[in-house]
Amino acid sequence: MLNLIAALPSIVSESRCEVRRILDNLDHWSDVELTNSEYIIPTHTPYKEKRMNDATMLSKDWTNRIINGDNLLAMQALLTDNSALGQPSLRGKIDLIYIDPPFDSGVDYRSQHTISSSTSEQSTVMTQIAYSDSWRDGTVSYLRMICPRLMLMRELLSETGSIYVHIDWHVGHYVKILLDEIFGRDQFRNELVWQRDAVGKGAKKGSKQWSRELESIYVYSKSDKMYFQQPFRPADQLTYTQLKEFRYAEEDGRKFKIVTLGDYSLQSIEQMRSNNLIYTTSSGKQYKKYYLDEFQLAIGSLWNDIPNLSHGRNNERLHFETQKPEKLLERIIAASTPSDGLVADFFSGSGTTAAVAEKLGRRWISSDLGKSAIMTSRKRLHQTCSKPFLFQIMSKREREQVIEVISDETKQHAFYILQSFGAEPIIEPLDGYFAGSMSNTNTIVFVDYNNKLNNRLSIEQLKMKCAKRYNKIIVLRWAFDHKLIESGQYEGIELYIIPEQLRYFSIHLIHAQKPLKTVKINFSPVAILTVCSPIIEVYDDQWLHIHLQLEHYHSLAAHYSIAAYPELHNIIKQDPLALIEYWSVDSDYDGQLFRNEWRQHRQYAHKKQTDHRVATKLKITVPRKYGQRTICVKAYDIFGYESEWSTTLTDSDIAQGGDDHSKNI
C-alpha cells in the first residue's frame, strides 16, 4: 500500500508530461483524425428526407456520434481543430462528462447472446468478455490509464461544465486523489452515493464484513460557474412518514405542513402573509406553510430510489453486465446540462448515457474501445434515436501516413504488434517481412507493413517459401480488400486485422520514449458475408422494390469459440447466419460513407422465444436511378466483427442483380 501511495506523484507527473505533449502537438499531428464510417438514419425516415439529411449532414452545427477506439486518442481528435473536415475543436465545449470506467475489480465482465438455428429448435446461451477489469501491474497500471484521460476531459469541459466519475470501493479513494489534483479540491462539488441494491443483499448469516451495495459518483466542476438545476422528488414519491407531516388543512381541504420561520426577514414574512403562507397558532407563534399539492422535496446526495437492473423484470436490460439504469443518467443529465447541452461518455459500455441524452434532447458523444460495447450501444441507439447520428473510426489514410513518419521505429513497432498477437518475433526479416513464430506450433505470423501482400498470388508465393518449415501462415494487416478475403478461405492461410488501439498506443509509447510493455490483444479475424443476388421489382415509373436476402456467413472467430462452447458447432454447421447480430443496407453507396438506412436486428422479445435469429430478408423501396447503383450490406456478428458485401446494379438489371463481391473492414 505504501508503494502505491508513493507512486501517485510520479503517475501524475508522467500523465502531465503526456498530456502536455498531446496538447502542444494538436496542430501538427494528423494520425488521430476521426473518419465518418457510417451515417445512421432512423428507419422510419422517408427516403427523400434520408438523402436530404445526408446532403446537409456535414454542414450542420452538430451531429451526434459514436466513436470506436481508445478514448485517449478519441479525446485528442476531439481537441484537434479539423474545421476543414467539418470537425472543429471541442476544447471547452462539452457541458457534462459522465464516465463509468472500470473499477479495478480484477473481474472479467461479460455480455450474453442466445444463439439458435433456423433448421432445428436447438439453442444455446453464449457469454463473452465485454471487457477485462484486470491490470498488468495492478492498481498502479489502472491509475496510469485513468490519470491522463481525466486531464484531457478537463480540457474538453466548458467553463460551466462538470464531470461525474462513477466508481466503487476498489479504487475510488485513489481516483479521488487524482481528481483533486487535476480539477482542484475547491472544485469538488459532492460525492453522490448510489445504493444499487437492497441493504445487505447477498450477505450471508456467517458474513465477516458489511455488505457492499453502494457505489460513489464524484462530482467536479471546471470552474465556480458550474451549471446546476436542483432536482426534486414530487409529492407522490413521499414516504408515509413524510406524508404524515401534512396534518393541517384549509377550509377547502387543501393539506399543508408547517415549519419554523428561521431567519426570514420581516419583509419576507409580510410578503408570505399576503400570499396566505403564514400559519399562526392560538398562542400567536408563526410558521410557514408548505402545501402538499405544491410540495417538492429536494433530492440529496444519497440515491436509494433507483434500483439496479437486476431487480425483477426490466425492459432496459441488454445482457450487458455493467449496464446502468436510465433513471440514474436522467437525473444527472437533467440537473447538469441546459436543454441544448453537449454530453459525453468516454467509457460508454452499453450506451445508456447516449440513449438518455437523446431522449432528453441533448447532444451527445459516446466512445468505447470494446467490440461488444460498440455493438450493444449501436443496436440500442438504432432503436432509440429519432435523429441521424455518426459512427466514427480512425482514418486508414492517416494510418498509412503515420507509417512513413515513424519509419525509423517500424521494426520495434512490428515486434510490438507480433508480441501483442502472441508471436515471438524473428530477429531477421523473412523475405523482407517482419515475422514471428507461435510457440509449440508450426505457425508463422507476418506483419504486412507496406501492403505488399495485396493479392492471393503474393500470399500463395509466400506460403510456398515457408512450406518446408511451417504449415500455417497468418497475415496481420490494418485492412483487407475483398481479394485478400477470398485468400483467407484457402487452407493454411489466416488473415487478421490489427486493432486500431494497438497502432496508436505504440506510437505514443515510441514518442514518449517509454519501454514497450506488451499485453495479449484480441485481433479481428476476417469474416466473409455473401448475399443472394438482389431481386428488383418495378413499383412504378419512379420507385423500385429491392429484395435482399443473406446467403452465407463465415467467421474464424466462431470456430475458435467452439472449444469453449461445443454446442455452437452444430448450430454453426446447420446455419452460419445464426451468428449475425444485425445487418444494415446503403441503397446507393458512394464507396466512402456508408448510409445506414435500413437494418434488421436480432430480437429478444420474450424469455420463452425460441427463434433468436435475425431476419435474413429485407425489402427496401428506393427511387429508380438511371445509371449505376451500388448496394452495400454491412453485418455484425455476435462477437462484434464486421463484414461487408456490395453489388453494382444498372437500370438494365431489373430482372436480376449485378456482379457482387464481399469485403471485410
UniProtKB/TrEMBL annotation:
What family does this belong to?
A: Belongs to the N(4)/N(6)-methyltransferase family.
Tell me the Gene3D superfamilies matching this sequence. Answer: Vaccinia Virus protein VP39
- Provide the species name: Candidatus Pristimantibacillus lignocellulolyticus
Q: Which InterPro entries match?
A: DNA_methylase_N4/N6 (IPR002941), DNA_methylase_N6_adenine_CS (IPR002052), N4/N6-MTase_EcoPI_Mod-like (IPR002295), SAM-dependent_MTases_sf (IPR029063)
**Superkingdom of the source?**
Bacteria
Q: Sorted alphabetically, which SUPFAM superfamilies does this protein's record hold?
A: S-adenosyl-L-methionine-dependent methyltransferases (SSF53335)
This protein is called what? Site-specific DNA-methyltransferase
Q: What is the lineage of its organism?
A: Bacteria, Bacillati, Bacillota, Bacilli, Bacillales
One Pfam match:
N6_N4_Mtase
Outline the extent of the DNA methylase N-4/N-6 domain: 94-374
Specify whether S-adenosyl-L-methionine is a keyword of the entry.
yes
Gene Ontology molecular function: DNA binding; N-methyltransferase activity
